[in-house]
Structures are given as structure tokens and as C-alpha cells.
Known about the structure:
alpha/beta, Rossmann fold, nine-stranded mixed β-sheet, four-stranded antiparallel β-sheet, about 35% helix, binds S-adenosylmethionine
Amino acid sequence: MLREINPALFERLSKIDRSESFFEFLEKPLRKSLRVNTLKADLDFVLRRLSDVVEDRIPWCEEGVYVKVDDLAKIPEHQLGVVFSQSAVSMIPPLLMEIEPGMAVLDLCASPGAKATQIAQYMENQGCLIANDVKLERVNMLISNIQKCGVLIARVTMMDGRRFAKFENRFDAVLIDAPCSNLGMIRKSYRHARNWKLSTSLSLSKLQKELIMAGYRCLKPGGVLVYSTCTFEPLENEEIVDYLLRNTEATAEGIRLPINAIGGFKEFEGKEYLEDVGKCLRIHPQMNDTEGFFVAKLRK
Ligand SMILES: C[S@@+](CC[C@H](N)C(=O)[O-])C[C@H]1O[C@@H](n2cnc3c(N)ncnc32)[C@H](O)[C@@H]1O
């Protein structure tokens, strides 16, 4: 099917993962998942209340569950912000940020706020969370979700993330969940597949390099920066981490989670990446029956 929808994308993806199961899972519908918002209610209490719809726990995130429901809007807990609809792999970045209550944390590309609200949950509503996005309609969505989830420590800003470079050494932890080509979300919508061109990834790659450099500058020495995307494209993943490692003192750290994944590519289309780029995680759909995802844990 993908071959017919966008032959150039099919060819590109075949260079990234040539396994049959990769393409098979790209066409399968995605399991729905939720994160319990412990800012609003106790985890066990909510799991008991939702026992009719919960199918499984998500192995890498204590508060995450797979659910069997057609429409999450029908769950009252969803309307109340007691649970947040969030894809299972998207729960990973906040888990790697070494978040503690009282920290100053920056989420540079935060809307609609799945990870920002998860970060606030791990901060136990203590400290300061700057949740930024560049677009007005996205910022409005972010504010609405932050309010719904009972997050009291967020300051929402509307800036081009690249402008944060002027705030040097200010944050204990920084998340860059970058705007990307969303190819990992093909299971949710073919729109991302239909629209993809290599030039899209090339221009995103340029923006992502500027965003990661700005985020790194804002980070205090010793702090953790997590870079993530929901795409398979190396130009938006390994290329960005490699760029940061080559141009700063940043170091990449290994990621230990109970999840099936492969390391970041050390070479793609003749371009060699630094050895440490292999410490990043690539999660392809067939590995855990999820969306596709890429994540890197970096330290200043
Ligand atoms: C992958 S989404 C973020 C998802 C979000 N982290 C979550 O977990 O709900 C990427 C976001 O980056 C924002 N964005 C795009 N360009 C940006 C820029 N130059 N500076 C800051 N944010 C930007 C987009 O508006 C979009 O909301």
C-alpha cells in the first residue's frame, strides 16, 4: 500500500529497514494507550476504575496502559484530565530526563503537552516548567491541556525555540521533541506518508540542528538534554545528534529501558556518524507493536 501512496518514501524506508515485518506493521492499526495523571489521582485507584478497558500495562512506563476503546472521549477520566491519551513510545523522553521535584525544566517544542504534563507529574508540581511552542493555535491547545491536567508549575511561552539560545546555563533538564516528518505516525494516518519528500526532511534537519544547539546552550552543566522525534529518517535523527556531539562538549548516554529497540545508525547512505550515536534508540513499529520513535539522552 505504501508503495502506491508514495513510491519515493517506500524506496527511502526500504534503505532504513528492509524487513517485511517493518512494512507489515506500518499498515496495522495502532493500539490505543493512556497515561494516568498522578497529579490528579492515585495510580492504583485509576487502574481499578478503568479495569474494564485496560488491556495491558506498558512495560517501560509505570503510569502507561494500553486500552481497548473506540473513542477515548467516552472515558470520563479523559475529560477530567485524570488520564491523558498518549502513544506508548511518546512516554519515553520524560523517563530519561532524571526529573526531580523542584527542578527548572524546559520543554522547547511542547504542544499539545503530552510530555510537558508527564514531566510536571514527575516534578510533583514543584519547581518550574517552561513549556514553549511557536504557533498560536498550538500554544492554545497546550494551555488547555496543562490546565486540564492540574499542572500548576508551567509557564507557557510562545517563541521560536531557536531564540532560547540566549538563556545560557539556566535549566536542569531540557526536552527537544522536535518538529519532524512524523513518519513513525503512519500507523495513525497516511497523511504523513502522502506528503513526504526528501526536501521536507532536509529542511527539517536544518531547523532541528538549530533547535538542539539552542536547547543545549540553555542547559546547566551536568544537566540532561533529551532529543526525540517520531520519524525514521536519519537526516532528522542520527544526523542531529552527530552534529551536537561534533560541535559541543555534549556526551551521549546509554538508555536502559524494558523495550525492544536498535541503536542509532553509525552509517547511512555513505555518511558515517560518531560511534556514540549508536547509544541512541531507534524503535521501529514491529519491535513492540507501537509507533516509530527515535530518542537520544545527552549530557552537558
Ligand atoms: C512533535 S510536536 C511536539 C509534541 C509534544 N512534545 C508533546 O509531547 O505533546 C513538535 C512541536 O514543535 C513545534 N515547533 C515547530 N517549530 C518550532 C520552533 N521553531 N520552535 C519551537 N517549537 C516549534 C510545533 O508547533 C509542534 O507543536
